[in-house]
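Re: 1-deoxynojirimycin structure - here you go.
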Amino acid sequence: MSSFRPAPAWLADAVFYQIYPQSFADSNGDGIGDFDGIRERLDHLAWLGVNTVWLNPCFASPFGDAGYDVADYLNVAPRYGSNDDLARLVDQARGHGIRVLLDLVAGHTSDRHPWFTASADDPDDHRYIWAAEGRPDGFVASPGSRPGAYLPNFFTFQPALNFGYARTDPAEPWRQPVDAEGPRANREALRTVMDHWLGLGLSGFRVDMAASLVKDDPGKTETSKVWTELRHWLDRTHPDAVILSEWGEPEVSVPAGFHTDFFLQFGGPTDGLALRSLWSNGSGTVNLDWDPLDCFFDPSGKGSPRPFVEAWQQASAALGDSGFISLPTANHDFSRLNCGPRSAEQLPVAFVFQLTWPTLPAIYYGDEIGMRYIPDLPDTEGSVLGPAYNRAGSRTPMQWDDGPNAGFSTSDHPYLPVDPDPGRPTVAAQRADDTSLLHLVRRLIALRTSTPELGPDGSVEVVHAGYPFVHVRGGRYLVVVNPREERTSCPLGDLRPGRALEASGVVTDGGTLTAEAFGYGIFELTP
Ligand code: NOJ
Ligand code: CA
């Protein structure tokens, strides 16, 4: 049994929308998206029906890793506006029924953060992990007057904050215990940072690399304790706020204290198989060292929904009603939905699935109009992670209309180039066409929001775990998706679909259901 307060009631109805702030809307023509740009688009987001926005880091930063190298946790980067501009955005968002979460980069700072520059000159400072002499494996030579070397958490310019080690070793004196002075100061700093932004009206945080805090931590036992302590503090001081982890193992992160965790391309016993087998196998963006894998939502029809369903069953059984699993369409680190062998016409089925499955949906900005991954872009603010791994392709400007830079910015030098395809999708064109993906996504969100059986707490029963994929929600709604480029059929047993709430290319004939290529449907069952 969890000892936490139940998640705030609003979370069960959350439809997350991830905004990459530098790429969403540029209000002042300097080429970089900003808070006022987002504020001017709140009407649109409210029209779409999303109710919880999460913003990638928008804090002062040298932007070596697009803002994941924080130089000041308490002040925003001037390129996005001021703290007051953020407060205004959050206020007006609330007026539109939209909550805003920030990104808490808990495990590391920039090497330009004053904590680090001070630490690099002071051998008695333990906010970071320092080897007093030499340069052990994985460490980086001190840039300051302090001798020795520090441990980075991601890029070398992102020194790991010291939350201690689960296992100490006299031969490696930098392995401090979790209750040493540095780790205690850092845990307190997390509370200070969270308190600051929650006080300004923010509703919580997506937490970057949440599993990375305590080093050499088998089973993440000690890292979990850090989050448990933090959740108890949140429950007491900000009971309406939520924390959403970048961890990828809800079975561990939610019992540790997170209200919800993403299924990600990595993490957990299957190393991200749930999401990778669905629609993010890396094709189009990433080679990593992933095993070649056919996605269920690829047109070839060679994939299977089973790895996803099994991972979901396992995780949701472990969670009970203590928290939620979040299912993203994509994010700023991996492929968009529209990439590799998957084209825009194949996206409706993916959204029908995402918005009817008992997880919390997270839509990555632009996926709702079918923006694609753009190959071969310049390395921008640390976007390149490997020879065939450039995250820039998933971070291009939001496509609003037919104006300059697709309406993103009037600058000649936008943050990243817009999709050069003259037929690129835009919000304006899709809003004007009620057969568009955007309208479908909007209707699906509205349906989900008005139908508790389709939310994360409704029951689910899988009727056919193949092509087509068929499931029943809350004993009342039959959902069908066929991501394959060929017609498929399956038996329906006693189930009798009645009124279609949303359907394209699905028919039933007696006890057989047939779905055309990329067909989908949500039907009321006839009792
Ligand atoms: C995960 C973030 O999503 C990614 O963009 C970033 O580069 C690393 N963490 C380091 O903070
Ligand atoms: Ca701007």
